[in-house]
Fold this protein.
Amino acid sequence: MTARSARVKPLIGLTGRRFRIELISGSHPGYGQRLTDSFFTDFADRITRAGGVPVMLPYDADPEALGDWLSGVLITGGQDVHPACWGGDESVVGDVDALADPSVHDRSRDEFEIALTRVALARRIPLLGVCRGMQVLNVTLGGTLIPDLPDGPIRHLLPVGPLSDGDPEHVVSFDAGTTAQKVFGDRLVTNSWHHQAIDVCGDGLVVTGRTDDGVAESVELPGAAVLGVQWHPEWMTSDDGALRWLVDAAAERR
């Protein structure tokens, strides 16, 4: 690391959603059909506090060009990855408009995030996948998903919104010697807002943390600064260390 790079804060790219402005309460009706991009500012706040510079990445940005500038990549949470991306049942997807409902499948987002993930992996840019982002990482590497988790003893879809450190029974245990164990310790109580999960891991990806019911809660690529978590570190009441890990890994790369 040069003296100059030691002074420059790492640039962390965050993905988000795109929808019509008419969905925003109080917006001017004349602008209703225009589009806006957004991400949860909790990510930006925690990245900034960890010493990074957060920047939002619109779908229009060229992933290869982004690879020339970014020190770290954060694939954020959101709607389900379209089953066409991982060999799932496409019959469950109706005729939906992601621009009118940001909770439904968005093929444009899928395509952008998968392409960006490929660039990050190829260029060894530190990458953190959060919730949907962990699933995007797995799908990018050829993995598959569980389309809908069955009811069980552990709740993976909390009935309350953020901020939350989760239910006491939602405990993730991490394998010794892994990146996840170094960041989070042996065990961590986390929040949880997901109904899908990793089924078969993609090429090279390893599950390094699970809840007691066997659901994959963290994955990584051994030997690379690549980590996925199924919970939401940006919405933990406490700082679990995930975003600090990304900023620190990005700073080291510089």
Remarks:
- Residues 3-253 form a domain with the Rossmann fold fold (CATH 3.40.50.880).
- Residues 107-123 form the longest helix (17 residues).
- The radius of gyration is 18 Å.
